[in-house]
Here is the input.
Amino acid sequence: MIEKVEKIENNKILSPEIVEKELKSNPFGNFLVYKKDNIIIGYLYYSLIYDRIEINQIEVLKEERRKKIGSNLLQYLIDNNKNNITLEVKIDNYPAINLYKKYGFKEVAIRKGYYEGIDGILMERKIGD
Here is the structure.
């Protein structure tokens, strides 16, 4: 089950203190969580900045990966928003890059040294793509 939350409880992946800090420091921040047996096992953290969404982070528990949880979170975000979506991804994170391409994201630019010296790819999914 996926839901938007403002407070985190009962999970194996994300500290409630981190969520509270992020939401206090980022007035545009939002969390979508994926629950299994009422326990959060994955999340998507994004910022809705006026007419654009910036995906800040997607994470799924290691033992729950390859079960379409990341795909479901991404599809939920796409289905429930009518905004362009952007994100950065490490240039060598092939599983994530392939996931984003599957959902219509296109490579827009390279951000040199974006991840502590490792290049990042700026990707975008435009409305209607």
Summary: The radius of gyration is 14 Å. The mean pLDDT is 89. Helices lie at 16-25, 69-79, 94-102.
